[in-house]
Batch of 2 targets.
Target 1
Amino acid sequence: MVDIVKRFPGVLANDGVSFDVRAGEVHALLGENGAGKSTLMRQLYGLYRPDSGQIIIDGQPRVFHSPSDAIKAGVGMIHQHFMLVSSLTVAENVALGLPSSRGARLDLDRVAERIRALAERYGLKVDPSAVVWQLSVGEQQRVEILKALYRGASLLVLDEPTAVLTPQEAEELFVTLRQMAADGHALIFISHKLHEVLALSNRVTVLRDGRMVGTYPTTEMTRADLARLMVGREVLLQYDRPPAKPGEERLKIDGLWTVGDRGTDAVRDFTLSVRAGEIVGLAGVSGNGQRELAEVLTGLRKPSKGAVTLNGKDVTHASPAERIAAGQCAIPEERMRTGVIKDFSVLENAILCDHGHAPYSHQTLLDFKTIAAHTQQLIADYAVKTPTADTPVKNLSGGNIQKLILARELCRKPTVVIAAQPTRGVDIGASEYIHHRLLEQRASGTATLLISEDLDEIRALSDRIAVIFEGRLMGVVDAATATAESLGLMMAGTRHAD
Ligand SMILES: Nc1ncnc2c1ncn2[C@@H]1O[C@H](COP(=O)(O)OP(=O)(O)OP(=O)(O)O)[C@@H](O)[C@H]1O
Ligand SMILES: [Mg+2]
């Protein structure tokens, strides 16, 4: 890609970016939220047209009018949000849109055969006859990769593929990607996790504010180097935390049970309390009931047994609005589905939940002057990168949407915060920022339940760490003395707290 320029209204997303990837190489693309990584890759995949600049593949200048042009040129892309048809099987999804070798009749058995061969070669465990909705996120990702390989992709773009994976699944993905590179594929890998970039890539290109910072051989880089190139300053992710001064019990979960989407118990007899001025981390491998627990605590899922008390008040069956009124706020795990309304503007999203009362509305009329001033304040306080307050939220980069949610929730001065994966997909500079904000809340006496699959995050922020396994509490340990090893054993369900 040579001298690529791409402008959106009010944003210069790519400002003369040049970038190349070779056969047999994993090239990492690194940069803060909004740096222009996805935009650059969407041009390579034919989703956007560059305003100027050239895309050259195998020595040949190319103009892509759509992804199908890019696919014909051997480019594949794995998006962060999968594009599979959930009611079809794996083989049907792979065959979708491709000509059949038997004319009008589908040759699914042949497709399945080839899928098996590809899956075998690259260690992608999936059953071609499985229906997609039954697959885990990691399995769906493998189907997306198989689909690209099946179409003959020799260059594969992976936009934050590990953001949705457990650490074990990420390891498996890396084995696959290394095998693909060894076979001569060219891979472009986007991630905010520096240790992944260091472990997997041969070269790394850093973008900042739409511009190239540079391309470097990975072996010459350290974590600190990369952080400095991305953010323009040192990022430590280590915090000075004054000792906790826990006050009264703010959130109490007592013998809680709930049923998951597949009809089995997702949370089983779970008991935990969080006091004022402390952060309790909930660690666990994804899929062990954390999501369902957070849904019960925010009023989105019904408990089948047990009780939840918020500031001394029974909220077991309370609605989300009643919990907000009682002083709780939540940072949801799925920001696009439950955190924002993506077609609404930044301004409209900034007052969600608060739109019905003063000072934002009077009787039935919204007070746009007050709302605009409030939104500008949030944008400034939380460094949300957006052209204007009227920009639809879907045009913001992932990390900036997360900052907006955090700004909206924390400005209510909650007494209890339920934070689920608060820094997923967020760059390290912004992660540090979010962590500081959570620690600020702690200092001001908020009770925080931090649900995260990132053990480093849990250990950096928590006063006590609770571990969940198969919906049950494995134990609660003091964060100061807990080792990664003992937490790992508890997360794997093989050991209880001492
Ligand atoms: N379709 C669009 N319309 C308007 N602006 C857009 C659009 N897509 C991206 N942008 C803007 O372009 C800039 C670059 O966004 P991009 O999504 O490429 O960032 P990114 O590096 O992928 O960030 P993240 O790490 O958060 O995913 C951002 O300021 C974003 O708001
Ligand atoms: Mg992106």
Target 2
Amino acid sequence: MSLTATLGHTAATAQVAAGQHDPAIPTSAPLIRARGLVKVYSTVSGDPVVALDDMNLSMADGEFVSIVGPSGCGKSTMLRLLAGLDTPDAGEMTLGHQPITGPSGAVGVVFQNATLLPWMTVWQNVILPLQVGGGNRAAREDAVREYLSIAGLTGFENKYPYELSGGMQQRAAIVRGLARDPKVLLMDEPFGALDALTRERMNGELQRIWMASRKTVLLITHSIGEAIFLGDRVVVMSGRPGKVLEDLRVNLPRPRSHAETIADPEYIRLAREIRRMLDA
Ligand SMILES: Nc1ncnc2c1ncn2[C@@H]1O[C@H](COP(=O)(O)OP(=O)(O)OP(=O)(O)O)[C@@H](O)[C@H]1O
Ligand SMILES: [Mg+2]
């Protein structure tokens, strides 16, 4: 399969590549489109918090988009809205032309500080999403076994979360996000708790899974390097209220290896530009 076919690029990424930075670019068929999202939280102290203000994001089918931004700028809020777990105060969101009004089986989520249910084993935790989905359960369980193996968790299926390290728990939570074979995977800092070497390995595995499965992935990360290494695009958000500062196309060939990527002038250029924006 050609790389272009694998990545499923559409006019959206091409236009971004051409230097048009509006991420709500009208495309023939973006899989996910969010326009003008506003989210205001009321607080006990009385002052409302404007978490998102005019947030726009468009993702093509099969695209991998990374989001970076300062702490508290509304990244997790954005993810919850796209997952249908919360509603915006203004704006619209669509998944495959359908308005997002609640959680969907087509969307898998790996939450920030993902927690496994402590009274369930690793296996029970990761197949939990299959309880509510239809489809061929036996085939999905085989796939989950494969993901557990990739995540280095084979042999730990019958352990309880307290018997695992923090990194292992996080890897199990990632496998849980993949369990129902969602079309879209929303990941909120999924590797934050991992040590640097495991993180690099999981980055490589995520790239491999994504290239093989053609999922549409949104990855929120605090790591500029991780955002570039994995992304077709890196969306840089402003401080709160969050909106898109810049939407950068990553022109690096795939599959990417860490060693080659971090030495690539394109990587160095992007990393510098993103850091400059985040420092500003
Ligand atoms: N349920 C809530 N009630 C009130 N305020 C909230 C709520 N959730 C988030 N906020 C506020 O909204 C803003 C955005 O929060 P959010 O969790 O989306 O940030 P973030 O970009 O994910 O930050 P981080 O990088 O630290 O995870 C913050 O100021 C936060 O305090
Ligand atoms: Mg967050």
